[in-house]
Amino acid sequence: xxxxxxxxxxxxxxxxxxxxxxxxxxxxxxxxxxxxxxxxxxxxxxxxxxxxxxxxxxxxxxxxxxxxxxxxxxxxxxxxxxxxxxxxxxxxxxxxxxxxxxxxxxxxxxxxxxxxxxxxxxxxxxxxxxxxxxxxxxxxxxxxxxxxxxxxxxxxxxxxxxxxxxxxxxxxxxxxxxxxxxxxxxxxxxxxxxxxxxxxxxxxxxxxxxxxxxxxxxxxxxxxxxxxxxxxxxxxxxxxxxxxxxxxxxxxxxxxxxxxxxxxxxxxxxxxxxxxxxxxxxxxxxxxxxxxxxxxxxxxxxxx
Length: 304
Fold this sequence. Notes:
The protein is mostly beta strands. 0% of the residues lie in helices and 48% in strands.
C-alpha cells in the first residue's frame, strides 16, 4: 500500500482523482535537471531532457532507461504534433525543432522579427496543428542550461507558429518569465505559467489563463492560481479540465475555477510532468535528479 502521506487532500473531490494504493515509483535517478517529459503511446516509451548533461533519455517498461540523443543542444520541453512527431525546445540553439520520422531535424522557429529568440522553453500543439511555445531567458542566463548571452528580444513572449505559412506571432508579450503551457480540453483556454520568482521572490509565481479567440488570438488574461511552494514550471490538464502543476513540494492539482484541491508530494522539486501509459492515467514526473511515476484515477487531455 502507498503511504497516505504522499497525498495532501484539500477538497474531497481530489480523493476521487487519486489511487491511494498506487505508490510513487522512482523510474530513474542520475539527472542534473530533469525536464520536458513526453509520452509516446505507440512506442510505449517516455522521453525527457536532462538539460545540463546535454542529453535526452528514454524509458520503456521492458528495457528501462537509455540515452535517446546526446548532445541535445540543451533541449528542455517537448511535445508531439498531431502526426506523432517530436517537437522540442532547444536552449542551446535558441530554437524550436521537429524530429522527423527518419530522425532528421527540421528547424521550425529560431528568430522573431529578425532577432534570435531568447531560449524556447516549453511547447504545446493545438488540434489545428499550430505550435505554441514560451520564450523566457533561462537558457541564456548562464552556461549551465545553455550558453550565456544577452537577449535580442525586448520581451519574453508566448508565440504561435502557423502550421500552414510558418509565420510566427507573439500572442502575449507581458510575461516576466513565461514557462509551461497547456490548453484546456476543449482548447478554449490556454494556461501559461510565469515562473519569474525562481530568481526573485518578489516576482510572479502564478499561472495565467487566456481565452482563445478564433484559434489564433489570446484575450482576457487573468491570474488563474498561485503556487504556494516554489514556482509553477510544467503544467498539464486532465480530461475533466483540472490543471496539474509542478511545484517545489510535488504536483499541485487545481479545479477549473483555480481552486487548489490536492497535492501529490514528491521528494524533490518538480520541474515538469505529463500523463502517459495506455490509458493516459499514469502521471510521469520530472523532479530535479529523478523521474517518478504514479497512477491516478483520471486521464490526461493531451493527444496524441
